[in-house]
């Protein structure tokens, strides 16, 4: 038995320990945020386990059918949604929940109410489950300080008002990336301990990247600046090497790669979808918050993404996010286009 290795394993910075350390820096803190986060983490562990079994469940004829007990087997995205709604409500720290799976916002009953609003996509990229591509959960958290009756306007706030955001990616390993407004930290689930361990402290995105990430299948519908930018990535005129195209089609996986290696992720508006495809509250805002905290930028084609004020809970927006210099280039192209008009 390797006692030295085991001794090392006892001195791990777990997610719980990390969050408690952060909490101790705020003497006025009551621990509500820590409790809320622990419920989100529990939901992620549950979904991670379910994602890992999904293919197997399908192989033996369970998913989407009735099992021997006569219970309906739920599709994974529906199951994930239920897991997170129950985890968040039972924390006793939330008042409004907005989920990608639910048409209306969920108002928590007064007896279980707290001061936080959570916006989330319980399983982003779920159409990729069957082919083994990484998928994930994205979330953002707002705090209500007035203590009044919660109303829908409390979640229709610009992303810059979020107190925390993150995502959990279910891939070759289960990775949890979090920001509470002071840097970005990545944790990896150690299945033998059932704990998230800090493996990527203080992530910083490179100032400029070597790759771009976009669905080129939409190219014929793109606007001028996007088309020009992608053309420039492929055929640079300044003597620099062309950028590599890296597109998975699962936002969590594409953004995580961009965060670690640099580059730019684009989901522009086009003739078919003028507002793009990605939802503002639980896709654009959390990812933009993370990228800015890591030293990158996020831009909608008109303004800084986190300044956008949503009017509806499922509103969509174009998004360009990634390395600072790469986003600067696309901003310059949009500014030039605006001048022409």
From TrEMBL:
Its main location: cytoplasm. It is an enzyme of class 3 (hydrolase). Residues 13-201 form the Fructose-1-6-bisphosphatase class I N-terminal domain. This is Fructose-1,6-bisphosphatase, cytosolic. It catalyses: beta-D-fructose 1,6-bisphosphate + H2O = beta-D-fructose 6-phosphate + phosphate. Its cofactor is Mg(2+). GO terms for molecular function: fructose 1,6-bisphosphate 1-phosphatase activity; metal ion binding.
